[in-house]
Structures are given as structure tokens and as C-alpha cells.
Amino acid sequence: MRPWAALVVLLCGTFLANLDVFIVVVAMPALERDLGADGSQQQLVLAGYQLVYALGLAAGGRLGDALGSLRVFGLGMAVFTGASVVCGAAPTTAVLVLARLFQGAGTALMVPQVYRAARTLFTGAAQRRAYAAIGAVMGLGAIGGQLLGGWLLSADVLGLGWRAVFLVNVPVGVLALTLLPWAAGGHPPVRRETVRADLPGLGLAAAALGLFTLPLVAGGTGGMVWWGPACLAASVPVAACFLRHERALDARGGSPLVPPRLLGLDGFRRGIVLIVLVNCGLAAFVLMLGLLLQKGLRWSPLATGAGMVPAAVAFAAGSLIAPRLARGAEVRLLVLASLAATAGYAGCAVGALGTDPRWLLGAVCAVGGALGLCVTPALSVTLRTVPEPVAGAASGVVSTAQQLGAALGVCVYGFLFFAQVRATADVVAAFAVTTTALTTTSAAAAVLARGLPPAAAPAGLPEDALGAPAARDLPM
Q1: CA geometry: angle 347, 349, 352, nearest 5 deg
Q2: How many structural domains are present in the chain?
Q3: Domain CATH code at residue 438
Q4: pLDDT exceeds 70 at position 241
Q5: Does residue 193 sit within a domain?
Q6: CA 444 to CA 130: how far, in whole Å?
Q7: How far is CA 17 from CA 63, 74, 108, 293, in A?
Q8: pLDDT for 316 beyond 90
Q9: Has residue 418 been placed in a domain?
């Protein structure tokens, strides 16, 4: 077993997971032009991937426990790579959307194994370096997605057009699958334990989210569909059934997706909502910004990618310096950063309506930096009140909340954006209206942050505060 080599191979999955969110944003106008993808279908290409990704994270983590991280990672990478081939060859938007759902499923199998490996293969300073590497690769995927997507579209590599943004995943996936046996040291996977997945809970959660998001996506270009209000209303009792099922399963000694004892922690509840709000605003903002630059301001794909990079760099920088700025004052930093993001969103709305793009890009950087400052302290204050026996489950809930927030942001604010475009045929004005509406996410985050407990982590919480106590070996 080669621990660092294994981590490097697993990080290929983290890189592709983030790359495929951002690289697709730059390709949206090309999809509309070549495949006739309307606003609803564009939302599905983005949000469908993230919804399946989010819903499958818990199952992916449980499969890693049962079958071994590298075995499940290999399965996920194979699914993701195959789906990328189908995306690149898709003859219609419907085929592309379906393939994106399979990409999300593959990602859900891959990503939990990366965190699990960092938690179980390393201890102490080495574990902190492993988590830092994960964060750096996530940032690299975000930045690389925008630049690479813009370059591939501008260069029209091999005449593939937008198809290249999906096919570029294939060599990375093949390389990771080829190196996987070597990183494992030639040792076959060993089954360590039997884990029973909460399939009814997963089904109820998927139903609740589907009932809520489908009307918003389906009405992206034509207004709310006639059956939309009924679906939105039905999502509430289905969500209630999900919570009731989780409590009953926990009482029987099962393994629920969301352990009820976590929801009983006020700091954890507030923190999860805060994480959802931050990611909701971020994902929606990235989508709207890409559409503004290409369709509203008529920038080329390469210029669009380059124009979005400063925000990604500011986000990465904010994430890196946040631990030093906080130093026990995470709640105060969260409040200030959320207020700064609110001001940044407002500045973007004003800057888009102006004539000097430098003002817009400055406000975009402010949003990126402010949201970056939110990420690390939000994780810290959410997880520090979690007792050790459910720390692993808590980290899975946090990862799911991040992806669900992103998907919901694309659905809800995407609906508003495309409704404005439909009403006014003015992409710039639609961006200004939607970005103004995004201030509600960061303002609400500031209010929630004020109520978070400032106390230190309880005794027995793992050092990294992101999962279960570090083990000495990783089931392969």
C-alpha cells in the first residue's frame, strides 16, 4: 500500500468532480446553439449532476465502508468516465442530461473515498497536509474548469466544439484507473464490514427534492408549469415522511442517512442551513456570471473563462487565509464575510449595468473572496459541537448539504434568471435582478451565523473535525 500515491489517484476524482461543475458553465451558450438547449435543459445539465451527486454521497460513503475505498473509487471512476464519453457523443439534449446524471452518480461514489482515505491513511500533521491537498485540488478544478473550458471552446480542438469539455475527462479517468492497482500496492480489496444502506430514506429524500426542484427546472423558460404548485406543496409532507423514517430507523438501531441526534444539535442545524445558503448563492452566481459574460456582454468563451478566474482565485485565497483570520473568532468572521458577500452581490448588480467592466470584475472578486472566507469557519462551527460517535455521519451530511445547496441555487435562482430573460430579453438586466436577489442568501447567512455557539469543540471530537477518528489502515 502506498498512502500518498493512493491519495494522488483519489484526488483525480476530486479534481474531475469540481472541474465538471465549472467547465460546463462556459459551454452553456454553445449547448443552446448546437443542441437547442433551452433554459430548463441548461439548468438540468448543471443541477441534475449536482443533485445526483449530493443524494449519492451517503450511499457512496457506506459502500466505501463495506467494500473498501479504492474498489468503490474504481467503480465510480469507471462510471464517470463512461458517462463522459456519452456526454461528448450526445446527439440530443435529453441524452446529454441523462449522461450527466450518471456522471453525478460516478462522482458520488468517488468523492467520499477521498475524505475517507485522508482520515484513515494519515494522522497528525500528515492528515492536515492531506486535507490541504484536497482543498487545493478543489480550487484547481474550479479555476481549471473555467480556463480549460474557455480554451477548448475557443480553440475548437479537433473540431469537437462543446463536446471537448466532456471528453477531456476521459484521459484523466483512464490514467487514474490504470494507476489504481499500483497505488494499492497490488493488494486486492478486503471486505471489512457489512453496511446496510438506508435505501427507503434515500428514496424519500430524492422524492422530496425532485418534487421541489422539478417544477422550477421545467418552468425555466415558459413560466411555472400547471402541475408545479402541486409538486411544490407535495414536497413538504414527503420531507416530513423522510424525517419520520429517519427517527424510526435510528430507534431500531439502523443507520439513517441523517442521524436524528445531529438534528438535535442547535449549532449543527444552524450550520447546515448556513452551508446550504453559502453554496446556494455561489453556484447560482457562477452560472449567471458565465451567461452574463457570454450572452449579455458578448465575450468569447476564452475571455469568459479568464474573466471568471479572478473570482475563483479570490475564493481559494479566502479559504486559505480564513483559519488564520478566525483564530477562535469564527462566528465573527462568518458574520463579516457574509455581509461582505451581500455588498459584493449588490456591487455586481450595479457593475453589470455600468459601462466599465473593471467595476464588475472588482465586485466579482469581492464576492469570491467573501464566500471563500465563509467556507472553513462554516465547517468548523458546524462540526465542533458534534460528538465523536456521529462525527463520520456528520461529515457526510455536511458534504451532502454543500452539493444540495449548489443544486438548489441553480434551480431556484436559475428559474428567476430565465424568467427575467423571457420577460425582458435582456440578459444584463436579468443578471442584475437575480444577483440582487442573491443578497438574501448571504444576508440570511449573516443572521444565522450570529446565533451559532462560540464554544470550543467538545472533548473527544477528532482533531481534523471532519470525520471519525483516524485509523491505522484503509480497507482496500
Answers
A1: 105
A2: 3
A3: 1.20.1250.20
A4: yes
A5: no
A6: 33
A7: 18, 14, 9, 24
A8: no
A9: yes
